[in-house]
Amino acid sequence: MKLNNILLFAFIILNVQLLNAQAPKPGNYYMFPIKPGQRNFLAGTMGELRSTHFHSGIDIKTEGREGLPVYASADGYVSRIKVSSSGYGNTLYVTHPNGTSTVYAHLQKFKKDIADYVRSAQYKKESFNIELFPSKSQFVFKQGEVIAYSGNSGSSSGPHLHFEIRDANQRPVNPLAYLFDEIIDNIAPTVRKVAITSMDINARVNRQFGRFEYTAFRRGGKYIINKSIPVQGKIGIEVLAHDQLNGVANKNGIQFIEVFLDSVSIFQQNIDRFSFSETRNILALMDYGHMVRTRQRYNKLYIDDGNELSFYDKHRNRGIIEINDEKEHLVQVVLKDTYGNESLIQFTLVGENQPIYGHDIQFNPLITTTTGDVVENTLILSSKISENQSNTATIYANRMKHEVSPSYFLNDNAYYLWNLKYALPDSSDLCDRKEEYHYGALVPPNSEFNFYHHLGDIHFPRKALFDTLYLTLNRSIDENTTQEVFEINDVYTPLRKHINITLKPEQSYPDKRRTAVYSRFGKSYSYEGGTWIGNKISFRTRNLGKFTIATDSLEPVVRPLIINRNDLKFQISDAMSGLKDFRLTVDGKWVLMNYDHKKKLIWSEKLKKGLPFKGELVLRVRDNAGNEKVYKTSL
């Protein structure tokens, strides 16, 4: 055999091995990590739409309790260990010979030799939170050996095991693709509603502009909308649906969705693997504003601006439908779970070329768009129809006066549409009703942008936005608290990256060391932080909406629960800025205190179990504003 042929053969073999190392292998390569061989139940599946990310694995129920043995899913070695009071909590990462790895999260505790190794490192670093990378030979396991015990650590909302399978590039893949016998699923996805949105100023849905919801009814083995929907121009479809597995009530995610228009596939979404670097794009996949308002997670069945997700196998015109005729068009949406259970949504769109002006619209779906909303670069305004005067609206923009006629009428209201890309309005006169706006700038999504204003300055890094932002900035005084409230757009607009904001308050704040920025949502406050430079305060955030400046002068609360020579346990909390850190020493020596932020508990774990605590105990607890509570006693 010639040398070139040998090299070519070796190259092919090597690439086949690499592909096999990354491709899911059905069968028994992986063992179910909880109660293998027995019936198991899931609380969550891969790809579920969470508030800010996709769920990256499966959540295995543990009978509502902690301490179930967790088994190595395949031969391998522990390559990473992480302990945190938030996120995944106590977590093990195991690397396998085929190049993949498995992740076991929210653990109660590790196997003894791992636990001893971790505790020794925590004492050496004097930190509860820790991340370690053992050598390949340090903790080696065979498939089926116990590596840990299930728990409720980190940000878990209840006892369970979060389990992931990752490919050689550390991308989560769908564990259910391995069709574990421990899980039974013969239930098709459930569909609740369909929403249709106008995608530009000339588009109409049910003869109106905006976003409209329709209830899906189960009829003869499929879901239907019981009336044809009049549309015109470019529209986008969303679906509110979930999957369910046998024996549990949990509402899980749907892996595969495909949309057909007149029997032609125009959109396909398959959440079988993704990269952690792209997961925040979920805010462009969901209808984010509607999710914040209602907690309902609609899945857009089109690829919106700023959506850079990689699991769209095929699409036509990004899934956006454009209808400019007067014909009927059949829409079919197929939803499948990992086990092949399938549901079908079917409804009809009717093209209407001519807009209808009148008050006789008979079918009104649930309208989720109101006056003052911005939808796809369009500002929606409305006013009551007046019989005694003209219904023409006057909009003032760029020092010019614009006379605007109603785009349509509905229920004794005239609706006006204004293209914000044309000009940002200063104010409007809607049939003698004055409205003022606070638009400051048009911020492009893909460029770095700086905004300077007498109320504050804002820096947008490149790609901080998913879509064009029509920036508004306003200041008011809360009547109840007399606090300054700075409103930057609203909480319904998502950000991909953190932005930098410098507020310029008019009120004085004598104790700047304990004064910071807080975001406000209803009656809730959330600490944002900030650094004072003179009379200005700068902070980073990944949220828009309302911000206030407040002083936290209250020290944290420390409540002793158990204090003896063998065990120490406290409840610690802070009412305003939140806890920053804590430190406990006995006789001047640091003591490891485990922390459960959900229960606000810390409890001791000795380096040497037989050695009693003796001497002066000092517990220092600090909040984010710098207030400190010191608790002392003698043992």
UniProtKB/TrEMBL annotation:
InterPro entries: Cell_wall_metabolism_enzyme (IPR050570), Dup_hybrid_motif (IPR011055), M23ase_b-sheet_dom (IPR016047). It holds the Pfam family Peptidase_M23. It comes from the Bacteria. Keywords: Signal. Residues 54-121, 142-175 form the M23ase beta-sheet core domain. SUPFAM superfamilies: Duplicated hybrid motif. Coiled coil: none annotated. This is Peptidoglycan DD-metalloendopeptidase family protein.
